Amino acid sequence: MAIARALDPVAIRADFPQFERDFDGRRLAYLDSASTSLKPRVVVDAVNDYHTRYTANVHRGIYTTGEEATAAYEAARTTTARFINADRREIVFVRNATEAINLVAYSWGRRHIGSGDTIVLTELEHHANLVPWQILAQERDADLEFVPIDDQGRLIQSSYEVLLRTRPKLVAFNHVSNGLGTINPVREMVAMAHDAGALVLVDGAQAVPHLPVDVQAIGADFYVFSGHKVLGPPGSGALWARRELLDSMPPFLAGGEMIREVHLRRTEYNDVPWKFEAGTPDIGAAIGLGAALAYLEGIGMEAVRAHERELVAYALDVLPREVPEIHIYGPLDPAERGGVVTFNLPGVHAHDVAPLLDREAVAVRAGHHCTQPLHERLGEAATARASFNVYSDRDDIDRLAAGLQHVAAIFGRDGRDGRDSSPAV
Amino acid sequence: MDDLYRDEILEHYRRPHNFGTLPEPDAVFEGANPLCGDRITLMLGISDEGVVDEVAFTGRGCAISQASASMLTDSIKGQPLAEISKLGRQDVLDELGIEISPARLKCALLSLDTLRRALADRVVWQAPTEDGVA
A367 CB near a chain B CB, below 8 Å? Predict the structure, then answer.
């Protein structure tokens, strides 16, 4: 195994055109990569190339550009498979992780979830890994159960163990939490679910961009991620599932491309993964995803993880020192935390924090980050979130700290005065 | 001092005017922007002559939503409903006196929207049509 080379964020930033843009004499301190990542030039070029040099549909055209487009699209699938250690025939291209989860809920879920069945989810989930299961459960009269979190935002494993005794049909949870950065013990949780007889879907949207992912080692049944968070274009993403599952699942969307033979009253479906790729896909986005993953392979995901872990450790050290009033949510140990630091300043709403930081060309997310149930659990309507990627460095965190000092100075030490501003409930 | 938030707005946010509840309100409505978590409960006491003689609100949210509620309740207290019905979004934005980005219009206008809904239940209220709050 190769030793991870240290990653140089300053050199990496030269690969990302957006850093050339001037924000009042500064580069943007982009701290919202958990929302979407910036794109390196190689990705923009790959997408552009397809749209300017060899635009053609895939799996159809018997001419030079048609064959080039098909080859590039399928090469992107091979790169995607290699990136997460999967078989290329087990990679279904989708628009994003949300679509992948919906595909599983509609195709697998409607065949296998029935009245009285249980699906186990967690309090940490993104809405994308909640709402499709709510719809399925309502439709099928099935039950949803939720693994609770402790005060550091870690899933309580003893509660998980108890919930598994309900013999759920499916367990679905994220690999890394977008809300708090919690890295969940996926291998152990998958093994426990399998012992209980459940299939497992892992939402890897915040994992694939930030740490080495090996779907064979994780051992889940479904693993999903979005391309736009992993330096790729929006409109790209992948569902990985074990081949026999994909073979046994009915189609999700139907139409062209997913067929082998169509007659007026019957159709023979295409092989997987194409059975799940009805209609003309976002070819350019898929090719861009392949370019993004190849770019990250060049850096090495061990190095990416080491870099972000170091940044989290730095942020957890510097922010409370420079901004004593800050309240940080989530795991305190950088080993248990992806490149996400979620926080509030007491008495200051996150929606007031973000625009003031924006004045300093520091971009953070403010709101509930598509995790409203998690925020209900935290007792906060909104939080601010700084999140990192390969181009982030200590300078970004220093600028965040300085910006937060500025916000604290404007609002005063305690923000809103002592009276309880909550409505009576 | 950052010009994004004038002192007056911060002052209204820190120490909101008319903050609290009325024991027997004639109109009440809880308005919310679920996406940002801004929340305002507005209570009005209305005389037989159709004058808002009492007003109170509680709530939590960003400085803009809370300052806007504080300022709006100041401006409607003692006013007849006929006058209040003429209040439009521009009046609220003028009162705030800062540049409101499109993303934060909902924060700024939550109090006006809540006021209109509180009064919508009352037949005396005639909502202006050309100036609806999104």
Answer: yes
For A3, other C-beta atoms within 10 Å of its C-beta total 8
Where on the phi/psi map is residue A372: left (φ > 0), alpha (ψ -120 to 50), or beta?
alpha
Test B5 with A410 for CB contact under 8 angstroms.
Answer: yes
Selecting from A351, A412, A423 the residue whose C-beta is nearest the C-beta of B62 gives: A351
Contacts of residue A303, Cβ cutoff 8 Å, sequence gap at least 6: A4, A5, A6, A7
Return the residue matching tokens 């794109």. Answer: A39
Catalytic residue among A128, A370, A374, A378: A370
β-bridge partners, B54: B45
Q: What is the rounded CA–CA span in Å between residue A140 and residue A117?
A: 9
- What's the residue count for chain B? 134
- Annotation says A370 is catalytic: yes
| Beta-bridge partner residues of A79 | none
Task: Tell me the pLDDT of chain A (425 aa) as tens digits.
Answer: 445 568 999 999 999 999 999 999 999 999 999 999 999 999 999 999 999 999 999 998 889 999 999 999 999 999 999 999 999 999 999 999 999 999 999 999 999 999 999 999 999 999 999 999 999 999 999 999 999 999 999 999 999 999 999 999 999 999 999 999 999 999 999 999 999 999 999 999 999 999 999 999 999 999 999 999 999 999 999 999 999 999 999 999 998 888 899 999 999 999 999 999 999 999 999 999 999 999 999 999 999 999 999 999 999 999 999 999 999 999 999 999 999 999 999 999 999 999 999 999 999 999 888 998 999 899 888 999 999 999 999 999 999 999 999 999 999 755 665 444 443 32
CA distance A32 to A228: 12
Closest listed residue to residue A308, CA positions, set A397, A224, A370: A397
DSSP string, A218-247: H--SEEEEESTTTTS-TT-EEEEE-HHHHH
Q: What whole-number distance in Å separates Cα of residue B29 and Cα of residue B40?
A: 8
Nearest to B36 by CA among A368, A48, A185, A323: A368
Record the tokens describing residue A216, joined without a space.
């064979």
Look-up of token digits 């993104």: A126
**Where on the phi/psi map is residue B97: left (φ > 0), alpha (ψ -120 to 50), or beta?**
left
| Rounded (10°) CA dihedral A401, A34, A351, A326 | -40
Query: Which residues of B are less than 8 Å from A419 in CB distance?
Result: 19
Among the partner residues B14, B60, B104, nearest to A422 by beta-carbon distance: B60
| Burial of residue A110, with CB atoms counted within 10 A of its CB: 0-12 exposed, 13-18 middle, 19 or more buried | middle
Using CA atoms, how far residue B101 sits from A45, A73, A355, A370, B93, in Å, is 33, 40, 10, 22, 11
